[in-house]
Design a protein that fits this description.
- Strands 10-11-16-15-14-17 form a 6-stranded antiparallel barrel. A 5-stranded parallel beta sheet has the order 2-1-3-4-5, sandwiched between helices.
- The protein starts with 10 loop residues before the first strand and ends in a 15-residue tail after the last strand.
- It is α/β, with parallel strands linked by helices.
- 37% of the residues lie in helices and 20% in strands.
Length: 505
């Protein structure tokens, strides 16, 4: 996915050296990491200033800035000077990773010994004294190739942190009645450095009407037609939706202010379809496919979570209800024979009316799955339009079964008393027909039943979860840790009890 709404990380590497060690050892090892990064397809700028003192730290950071770097790797090629090396993180306005060199050979442990294994301890201690947050890999000591792999893992984390530091969430409308589960105090956003702009639905309606006859509508309609293909079941509806898409994208540009990136959290029912003349789901899906998620039901922290997923994966994302259990007959007929590793309680259906991007809906027809198409919202049609009538303004959802493959289901959320917490669970979408409506998928997550009870219910999470279409639990866990989130839950394996879980159950 190419998106101007997601930052591009530009990495730089700074080597540090304690003045009682051989400086060239750190510099040689730094050059080896740059070469290893090149071998792994990782672009990184080699900052030539080696840091031995505080003035060097300032000079190296200035060199990194001049090279366009927005994320840094601070490399302890030997023991390292603990004060100057940690001041780099204070001086640099961007995420920093710290890693240290492993010794290279047992044949050179005098002049060739760097003691960076020891130095990393002092570095961590000094970071703590200064209350500086840095990314430290799981085992932060390694060869050039090892550290290049650590840098590869750092990249999505850096991207997410950079995005959040310049993000504005734009909301339209209050949360729908009886959907308070998606309501959360906005203080947590400010704690993260995220801006928020809250507007009325009327503001959006006025802006939408002002876009009537916009000369760009035709080009957007053509793009929609190309994307939908046979799924373009209501061609006359596209002009309205194109007008709405332009309304949102223009609003983002005009209201981002000092921020670089924007996501939306919009109220989409019950007044929206009647006043706008369509459901917004397909338009929301298109923006999500471009790195600008639009969360349903004014779910501000859902939009935040989706954006984190988009930054980490550089791919389309979605937001789904953790919606309904899989019926036992469907499980026994279509899941159990092919996927014996799963129990019924490991599965559930993720659903939303139609906000999942078209590229994440299945193209298979050999397993009873529904192909993507524009449809109408069955529940809203039942509630808002005359009984027995053909769907009119409740059209505009994007229906289909979600594509099979690995996923990470997660959410960053604020509690009512403004404490941030999060959950992360890896699993997969199964190639099984949902036999339902909306944008829906059959999800399988190991030990989901226990996770549902002892995390989602026990910790009072809302019914919306963000979906990344890859296994990115490691990166998400690191992002949340870097953001200072202390309570990060995950699906515990069998035999490992949750706090409060009945051991006799």
């Amino acid at each position: 996915m190419t998106s101007t709404n997601i930052p591009k990380e530009k990495l730089g590497i700074i080597a540090v050296s304690r003045d009682c060690f051989i400086r060239s050892l750190s510099e040689r090892r730094r050059a080896a990491i740059v070469a290893a990064c090149k071998d792994q397809g990782i672009e990184i700028a080699e900052i030539k200033t080696t840091v031995e003192n505080e003035l060097d730290a300032r000079k190296a950071v200035a060199e990194a800035r001049a090279s366009g770097c927005n994320a840094l790797v601070v490399f302890l090629g030997n023991f390292g000077p603990e004060t100057p090396e940690t001041l780099i993180a204070r001086e640099f306005d961007g995420p920093c990773m710290y890693a240290a060199a492993a010794e290279e050979t047992g044949k050179d442990l005098v002049d060739g010994r760097g003691d960076a294994f020891c130095g990393m301890l002092n570095c961590s201690y000094n970071l703590g004294l200064r209350k500086l947050k840095a990314y430290i890999p799981e085992y932060p000591v390694g060869t050039a190739s090892d550290i290049a792999s650590m840098i590869r893992d750092f990249r999505p984390v850096a991207r997410a942190l950079l995005g959040l530091s310049k993000l504005k969430i734009i909301a339209f409308g209050p949360r729908p009645q009886d959907f308070f589960a998606c309501n959360a105090p906005i203080k947590g956003l400010y704690d993260l450095g995220v801006e928020i702009e809250e507007n009325s639905e009327l503001d959006l309606l006025v802006a939408y009407k002002a876009h009537a006859g916009d000369k760009r509508i035709g080009a957007v309609v053509e793009d929609m037609q190309r994307e939908l293909g046979k799924g373009n079941t209501y061609p006359k509806l596209l002009e309205r939706m194109a007008q709405f898409e332009l309304t949102l994208t223009d609003w983002a540009q005009e209201h981002k202010g000092q921020r670089d990136y924007v996501v939306f959290a919009d109220k989409c029912w019950p007044a929206f379809p009647k006043e706008f003349g369509f459901e917004p789901c397909y338009v929301n899906s298109r923006l999500a496919s471009r790195g600008m998620p639009v969360a349903c039901e004014v779910d501000i922290f859902g939009a935040l979570s989706e954006y984190i997923a988009a930054c980490v994966t550089e791919d389309a994302v979605t937001l789904l209800d953790i919606n309904n259990s899989v019926p036992a007959d469907l499980f026994n007929e279509e899941i159990k024979p092919k996927y014996p590793q799963y129990q019924l309680t490991d599965t559930f259906m993720g659903f939303h009316c139609g906000n999942t991007p078209f590229c994440k809906l299945t193209k298979r027809q050999d397993c009873g799955q529904r192909l993507g198409k524009i449809n109408y919202q069955i529940i809203q049609h039942r509630l808002l339009e005359p009984k027995g009538s053909e769907p009119d303004f409740t059209r505009g959802t994007l229906e289909g079964d979600i594509v099979e493959g690995p996923i990470t289901f997660f959410r960053l959320q604020s509690t009512p008393d403004t404490v941030l917490h999060a959950y992360v669970a890896e699993g997969e979408v199964l190639p099984v027909g949902t036999r339902s409506f909306g944008g829906t998928g059959v999800f399988a997550i190991p030990e989901m039943g226990r996770f549902y009870r002892h995390v989602l219910i026990a910790k009072r999470y809302p019914h919306h979860g963000a979906v990344a279409f890859a296994h990115v639990g490691k990166a998400l866990f690191d992002v949340f840790s870097m953001l200072g989130v202390e309570d990060i839950s995950y699906n515990q394996p069998r035999g490992v009890l949750y706090k409060g879980e009945n051991p006799f159950a």
